[in-house]
Amino acid sequence: MTAIRQLSSPEIHAALSDLTAQLAASCNDAKPLVVIGIANGGIPFARKIAAGLGETLGREVPVGTVDITLHRDDLLSNPIPEEKPRTSLPFAIDGATIILADDVIQSGRTIRAALNEIFDLGRPDRVLLTVLADRGLRKLPIQPDFTGLSLDTTEAQKVKVSLDTENPEKDTLEILHL
Amino acid sequence: MTAPQDWHRKDLIAIEDLSRDELETIFHWAERYKPTLGRTNKKLHTLNGVTVVNLFMEPSTRTRVAFEIAAMRLSADVITVMGDASSLVKGETLRDTARNIQALNADMIIMRHSAAGSAKYLSEVIDIPVVNAGDGAHEHPTQALLDAFTLRERLGHDLTGKRITILGDILFSRVARSNIHCLKKLGAEVTLAGPATLVPRGFEKFGVRVCHNLQAALDGADAVMLLRIQHERQTSTHFPSLGEYTSMFGLNEKRASWLKPDAIIMHPGPINRGVELDSALADSGRSVILDQVTNGIAVRMAVLHLCYTTLTAQAS
Questions:
Q1: Residue B1: predicted pLDDT
Q2: What is the spatial distance between Cα A133 and Cα A115, in angstroms, rounded to a whole number?
Q3: How far is CA B42 from the centre of its chain?
Q4: Taking a C-beta distance cutoff of 8 angstroms, is the pair B132, B12 a contact?
Q5: Minimal-distance CA residue of chain B relative to A68
Q6: H-run or E-run covering A3
Q7: DSSP class of residue A86?
Q8: Residue B271, exposed/middle/buried by CB under 10 A (0-12, 13-18, 19+)?
Q9: What is the second-level CATH architecture of the domain B142-290?
Q10: pLDDT band at B240 (very low <50, low <70, confident <90, very high)
Q11: From the candidates A69, A70, A120, which should be mutated to test the interface with B, based on the most B CB atoms within 10 A?
Q12: Any idea which fold B15-140+294-315 has?
């Protein structure tokens, strides 16, 4: 695989700051606010968003994880699942505002599955979708509410995101040719 | 660490057929399914639109209901047919029954039958997945799976070297046969205990220890699995009376003290309270009998999912 384009950590951080500011402006009411990352790639992204929001809003914003495995639409063709962290929502979601976070959106299938997983566990007041990168190529009518980076990609490419919650200077995003 | 995994079967007939990797695959999915049993919405869509027929030719409550719940949790439509085994003992009739069920566009059959080998026979004459829910004194694979799943939860995922004692009516028990195969494949050390008439030395060929001295059998064990005395499968008297069985082999507080201090007590149900197991012990913190029931749903969800997956993968 060869890298076609590489984004450095300052570019990623600029996108994260913009996203945090937009999210804070949309979530400044008194409703419970939580961030849920989609395993695996959405988890570090969710942590960064929650930390930034917590600082901006001056209150703690808890982070949870959803594992979409049981709601995949290709479940019956793949008996050996990828090992992922399990769904863990250590807070009440009934009536809450949920910021659903994933690193990259492509077809929209993952988001559909994540919404099913969340609604199996309760009834949030509203769900906002945020992604670090929208690479296009949608197959379902699902669009993010807040997008960090819009990328022009093809099916023959892969977008690889690596976010490090301990060492932000190591954050990278690469577009690779398969 | 992810355990090695493998699955290519459309039928689950016997634990004896399975590899350790296949067992690990079932446990992996059961672990995923178990937390969903406590959700607000317990229904998943895995088997949405799939028709499952529960063909129970022998009485059962627990297994039948657990299979029904497992299939419903996966959104399958479930129909239970309960029949009298006496009208179906001839192979031809069973074949016709099953082919008629398949002709109704059923997608899977779960079967309990009094004849050993009936599940395998059925899987050979029809195309849809067959899950054995107990065939005579042969095997009861999902019971062994839920027992092993419960043991893994309590004793750790690696059962290598764990000492498990199976106590009671081994001779007539399909549960014991399936458990012996399952536990051996997972590396456990298995001891069979009970009266010599119900625990013959012939079982040693499976690589297990046969022990007719109860204290020696229980000493230092990590878990004891009790089996119900199965009057219905006995054609002659194998012990003088239930009272005598209890006095010789019933598990009570004193005998349970021979086990490891943190050992667990298991029973596939239904319990004959006061016969093979002291009532207070059945309700104690060491008993995992109700965990076994809950885990029975999770492992059956895994089995139904995996067998059906193989069918759809073959079709595509």
A1: 42
A2: 19
A3: 23
A4: yes
A5: B32
A6: strand A2-7
A7: P
A8: middle
A9: 3-Layer(aba) Sandwich (3.40)
A10: confident
A11: A70
A12: Rossmann fold (3.40.50)
